[in-house]
Amino acid sequence: MSYSDVHNFSNQVLRNRSFKGQVLNGADFGGADVRGCNFRNAQLEGANFIGAKIGVSGRQIAVLSAGAIAICLVVGDVVTRLILGTQGQVLGSRSWSFVLLLYGVLSAAGLAGAIARTQPPSSKIGRFAGTISAILSGALLGFFYAGTATNNNSQAALAGMAIGGVLMFFVNSRIRRQFAKVAIVAAGSVTTYGAAFLFSATASTFLSTHKLFWGTCFGLVSLLYFWWSFVSFSAIVGEIRNAQDTSFRCANLADAKFDRNYINLKSKI
């Protein structure tokens, strides 16, 4: 069997296979289905990928979708519990400062998330807003779990809030894997919806006490946040569809042939 025969993968279905670290210089992957394949650290000098299907396999889409649903459920449970905890609190009560904190964090996270999802991927404003959304989502999770674990100790909750924000900042800025991106968008989407729900509940409270002006104001704001949450949840689907998880991270692609330029390919090399 000749060298060329060993490295002839043209028109084959190779989904989810690992070629990690292999020497595949001059290999022919023309027309092959390499979605989900791992070429990390592989030697692919002069390899042919013209006509190859590169991106996410069906299995990876299923994993990303399941992960997004799991993140939405976890964050949704946290946000729901935090919002329910504000019910019955009145101005001047001991917990009023935490009610204001929740309003502020949810409002800012929802606004930042909306800006991030409506800006082009290359926009500095969009990236900055996405970072803020991620930090605030992590802060909410840290606040809730630290407070719950310490029987609602306020100092521990605030410390957990800071730690959660820092951890989410690290994930958002350092981890480039598609699952992390989908998880961050999912968490931000739920916080945006949480803000919409909180403003809606507040509007209902004002309207039930015949304070029409404030009820109308909070109602309009809630409608705006509901629209933003729809945009954010749509962005989850977009992140999954645009995922390109044929991994070429650290691979040698000198003189390799592709029939198109893939967005963010350099980030995978």
Topology:
Layout (H helix, E strand, L loop, with lengths): L2 H4 L51 H29 L9 H23 L5 H26 L4 H21 L3 H31 L3 H30 L23 H4 L1
Helix pairs in contact: 2-4, 2-6, 2-7, 3-4, 3-6, 3-7, 4-5, 4-6, 6-7
**So what's the overall shape?**
elongated
Overall average pLDDT: 85
Rg, rounded, reads 23 Å
Indicate the percent of residues in helices. Answer: 55-70%
Beginning-to-end CA distance, first to last residue: 31 Å
Assembly form of the protein: single chain
Strand and helix order: HHHHHHHH
* Strand residue percentage: under 5%
- Spans where pLDDT lies below 50 across 5 or more residues: 263-269
- SS elements, strand count: 0
Number of domains: 2
Number of helices: 8
Q: How many strands, which pairing sense, and closed or not: the largest β-sheet?
A: none
Structural class: mainly alpha
What would you say about this model in short?
The chain has 269 residues and is mainly α. 62% of the residues lie in helices and 0% in strands. The C terminus is likely disordered.
Question: Would you mind describing this structure in some detail?
Answer:
This protein is an all-alpha fold. The protein is 62% helix and 0% strand.
Descriptive labels:
269 residues, disordered C terminus, 2 domains, single chain, mainly alpha, Pectate Lyase C-like, 0% strand, 8 helices
